[in-house]
Amino acid sequence: MTMTINKSAMSALLILFSCTLMLFGKASISHARPQTPIIGAQISILKPQTREERRYLFAQLRTSGFNTIIVRVFQNCSDRYHHIGKLSTTTPKEGVYFDTSQAPVISNLLPDICQDAHAERLRVFAWMTTLHANYHHKPLPKVYHYNLQSRSCQPTDTLDPTAHENQEFLIALYRDLAANPIDGIMFQDDLELRHTEGFHPKQNGKGFYPEPDTLYNFTVNKNGITGYKPTFWKWSDKKARALQNLSNAIMSACRQVNQNLIFARNIHYETLLNPQWGKAWFAEIPEVLSSSTTDYFFVMAYQQQISRELNITSETELEELMQRLFKAGNILDRGKQQVVFKLQAVDWKNENPLSSKKISSLLQLLKKSRRNSVVMMPYNENLFAHSIGAFSARQPTLSSNKGNDNLLPRWAESRYNFSNNLAGGIGADKWQTEYLTAPGFHQLTTDNILQPPVTTFNQDIRFKQSNEL
Questions:
Q1: C-alpha span between 356 and 133 (Å, rounded)
Q2: Are the beta carbons of 290 and 416 closer than 8 angstroms?
Q3: SS3 assignment, position 113
Q4: Of 19, 17, 39, 1, the residue nearest 396 (C-alpha)
Q5: Structural domains in the chain?
Q6: By Cβ atoms counted within 10 A, which residue in 105, 142, 211, 325 is the most buried?
Q7: Residues with pLDDT less than 70, the chain
């Protein structure tokens, strides 16, 4: 069949294309630049209280082989403060660590962090929340979730990503963040909507949409979910695109402030091991993520957590699964170094450092998988300098004063040919049926998509509450 396009239609297409570039930035026409792998330390609690102590810490990190620090720049009520000296009774319980009029300011700490880190030739990523940035000066619209116990939709503390006022607030907040001398921004892993989140009240005030009965197959007493209906998967896709549109809008606004700013988005490991899990549990869909204008995907490949959640008992089995996970990163790769894996540095339960020998083995496995970047989460004083040094021994040295030298270019937007042979396949919709069930929560099968392990939620954020981190 032959299709003809007249001049007016062609003009309309060109105008639409131009508007798209204006809306989402220049990601699709970026020029390739030399790429510098990320050897990152994610810092939950910045302990040094003086600039001399902070410079010493950053010098240690650089000497150990790190070239990037990822520092938390937000504060929620349950979080411990960065060590910024004596706190007063007027210190906000929640807010941010940079200057802004959009939210309470704990301390304008970020500029000093950047200055000290850049002096030691470290790049600085600001680790920032999105939908949990629930400290605007006035109440903002929240996400509703379906409560199985009460069998009703109830508001949460999560910002609704589709609400216009929330979008305006987050864009303004992030623009203020982008005005700092940072090299990049990492989105916290709250840029997600869980499988029972995302409902909206109907305009007539009677009920919610979509109707829960159209999404889920319930138990007889309706206090549990036995499977998902076809409408659920369409809803998940819609939620994923809403999240993607919000993040792209934030990045576009920030790049208007600093065109060299780079971005990373946290991704759950489930999205790679079995994309159906990510789609159901977090509204993370590789096909949708492929339209992101982010520079990196940071995959939270926390090895001990994965072992516990998937009931892995042997080191050999864990190594095989981690190798599969590293290879599955190809699902999101659209250029070298696009995907970065984050490894676990301490035991989440007792905060003890994990075995340096075992982590060295995983780093070697990363190298064999042709992955030259890694982020250790969280940084602590016992991080095995020898392991990281060996991993990064052949990495190029960064310029001392140009934090944005040799950064990864943003992607050109293009359709990616996803493989169905990796991690259970992307094209899993073909077996989505009205009565899809989940036989076992942690069996590594494509059928296990009913309930996510509780510990997978907010994986990064809960660790900063520990006194040892």
A1: 35
A2: yes
A3: helix
A4: 39
A5: 43-393+421-465 (3.20.20.80)
A6: 325
A7: 1-35, 334-337, 381-386, 393-469
